[in-house]
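Batch 3, record 17
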Amino acid sequence: MKKLSKLFLTSILAIGLISSAHAHDPKMHKKKAEKADCSKMDHSKMDMKDPVVIAMMKKCMKQAKASAKKVDHSKMDHSKMKSMSNHKQNGDDHKNH
Amino acid sequence: MITRIINFIQHHLVQKLVLSDFYQEGNVVKILKLLTLLIVVGAGVVTTVMYSGIVNVAADEPHSDFVYWLLEETREKSIKVAAQDIEVPDLSDPELLLTGGTDYEHMCSSCHLKPGQSESDMSLGLYPTPPNLSVSDDSHKGHEHGDETQAAQKNFWVIKHGIKASGMPAWGKTHSDQRIWAMVAFIKRLPTLTPEQYQIITADE
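Prediction for the assembled complex:
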């Protein structure tokens, strides 16, 4: 009886180990979302009526808006901050947050 | 058309045969025996070829020039006829480029390549070789493109229905016509894109 119990427990453990090898998160295979590299846009050579240019502008503007939203200014404690004139002198810029 | 052909055979050839001196019972029996023999021999040859394993289906063993030409011509004509009545919508909307571009990057680029890329594992391994859609029509010959409308019709049909035994899937089973037209719009502009433009348009974010 003891042997049977041991065998049963061992089997359960083995099955668990085997199944865990296949039960990995499918998200592991998901390709990482690629960001548009808008720094390489050459505006001087662009025809603003070209659908390709318009599409690129739309993508890059959307990306810029999304980046701006990520900065949460509501949690900044302005009372403890130096005056804005000091910010300008120090070259401080909100873009650096 | 088929009815006309059958009527022609009935009225002209059969009547002539019946009324001619050739129509004697002995001759007809001989002909029927010969036809039966030909059918049996033909079936035997086909069965032998099928079950002997002598047909080489390896993708890394190209067809002879004649067989390749036969299959290519049959395919191109079939697609041309099947796609000729497809109505092509306006493909100039920039939004189509964004939708189609992202889909192309995820679903098509591994086989049909992207600007600045000349080959991939899939493009080298598949037979027939998938056309490189990132270069102009003149650069990848071997099949007709026709005018812009015909090219769009053909591309839509191929993307939607796929091609048997070629590795080209029927995306229409999982993608709407609207999404496929977006891919057609993108493919139309693809040869004009630089790698930088391609990266921006096809990026997920």
